TrEMBL record:
PROSITE patterns linked to this entry: MFS (PS50850)
SUPFAM superfamilies given in the database record: MFS general substrate transporter (SSF103473)
Keyword terms: Cell membrane, Membrane, Transmembrane, Transmembrane helix
Higher taxonomy: Bacteria, Bacillati, Actinomycetota, Actinomycetes, Pseudonocardiales
Source organism of this protein record: Actinokineospora alba
One Gene Ontology term, aspect cellular component: plasma membrane
Name of the protein this chain belongs to: MFS transporter, DHA1 family, inner membrane transport protein
Record localization: Cell membrane
């Protein structure tokens, strides 16, 4: 494994910790600022919207500098945002800090995905992307549960102070290990935006919004769901998040490996199984053992979609991948924001915490339908190519396959 991938994973670890740890300390934050749980859920929604905004804007600005310098600048922004959250005197200031930290998120993973894919052979791109995202999944095994435990015992402000320090470690890692390749050649803002002329790029991002968004409908409110519905103690939420993190870790590795071999079949399987699991969670949330198993499966199936969805966008925007890659990270978080908001609506309507799982299943099921549409369009393009091109080139070799077709 190239050491640069380790550096990217370190940065992803810090970002993953701050993204998910808020869910474990949401009741404590709500209590300190005197707001309701659904209102506190805006700390998840606001972060997600910050990613959606920051991903394309900062990526476009980053075309003027090398990718390494851009990654370092993004980690600096991440540190500042978490420091603001740790010292926030009001809920509004806390929300502002979350948004500032989130601005770095999408561009970091978007630029990082391109860097990771460029470090390995073409047939290993999805695996390389999954290795970078491994930092985020490890954060859910170690960083998020530990941050939740610290937040419940020493206070959530200590948690966010430590997260800011994690950002410092990530910054040092990128500076020391990511190679300086100079400013990307031939990369212009016009070329990057040209990638969005492809309907398949938009379809892939729509799948991202709805598919992974389904996970957040349930996970945003996991602490109150597990304590109020399942009957776990607040301290047990830490260990439940560890199980969720282990599921994410395993799903990320499996998704990366199989996306390199059969991308669309991997998406069909993961999205279909995830939708069914979220439906089941409305029932299994009432039993401690079944809830723990289901939560692990949601983590695994949800993150099994990440490498194939990210690679799908890279394939379809191969000529100018950086902005499309970052925009897809924004799409993940647009889905998170949408799901957290919709989950809050059904909870506020008095339908109970488990009603958010129905929202998640509906979102993921819609993503599955879009995946079938994308595959159908792929087949139409391949058929059209065969009908309008000779079966073989003059040299006797097979024609070049359509980019991204699987």
């Amino acid at each position: 494994m190239p050491l640069a991938l380790l550096a990217l994973a370190i940065g992803a670890f810090g970002i993953g910790t701050t993204e998910f740890v808020i869910m474990g300390v949401l009741p404590q934050v709500a209590a300190e600022f005197g707001v309701s749980i659904p209102t506190a859920g805006w700390l998840v929604t606001g972060y997600a919207l910050g990613v959606v905004l920051g991903a394309p804007v900062l990526t476009v600005l980053g075309t003027k500098v090398s990718r390494k310098k851009m990654l370092m600048l993004l980690m600096g922004l991440f540190i500042i945002g978490n420091a603001i959250s740790a010292a926030a005197p009001t809920f509004g200031a806390m929300l502002a800090g979350r948004v500032v930290a989130a601005l770095a998120h999408g561009a970091f993973f978007g630029v990082g995905s391109v860097v990771a894919a460029g470090l390995v052979a073409p047939e290993r791109k999805a695996s390389a992307i999954s290795l970078m995202f491994m930092g985020l999944t490890v954060a859910n095994i170690v960083g998020v549960p530990l941050g939740t435990s610290i937040g419940q015992s020493a206070g959530w402000r200590v948690t966010f102070t430590l997260v800011a320090l994690l950002g410092v470690v990530g910054l040092v890692g990128v500076a020391a290990l990511v190679p300086e390749a100079g400013k990307p050649r031939g990369v212009t803002i016009r070329a990057e935006f040209a990638a969005f002329r492809s309907a398949q790029v938009w379809l892939a991002m729509a799948m991202t919004v709805l598919g992974y968004g389904g996970v957040f409908a349930a996970i945003t409110y996991i602490a109150p769901m597990m304590t109020e519905v399942t009957g776990y103690s607040p301290g047990a939420v830490t260990w439940l998040l560890v199980l969720f993190g282990f599921g994410m870790f395993a799903g990320n590795l499996v998704g990366g490996r199989f996306a390199d071999r059969a991308l669309m079949p991997m998406l069909f399987t993961a999205l279909g199984a995830l939708a069914l699991t979220l439906l089941l969670f409305t029932v299994t949330a009432h039993d401690k053992v079944l809830a723990a198993i289901t939560l692990t499966l949601i983590g695994a199936l949800g993150f099994a979609t990440v490498p194939p969805l990210q690679k799908r966008v890279l394939d379809q925007a191969a000529a100018a991948p950086t902005l499309a890659s970052a925009a897809n990270i924004g799409a993940f978080n647009l889905g998170n924001a949408l799901a957290a908001w919709l989950g809050g609506i059904v909870i506020s309507a008095g339908l109970g915490y488990t009603a958010a799982n129905w929202v998640g299943a509906l979102l993921t099921g819609t993503a599955l339908l879009l995946a079938f549409v994308a595959a159908y369009l792929d087949r139409r393009v391949k058929t059209s190519y065969r009908d309008t091109s000779p079966g073989e080139s003059p040299s006797g070799t097979a024609p070049i396959p359509v980019n991204g077709g699987r």
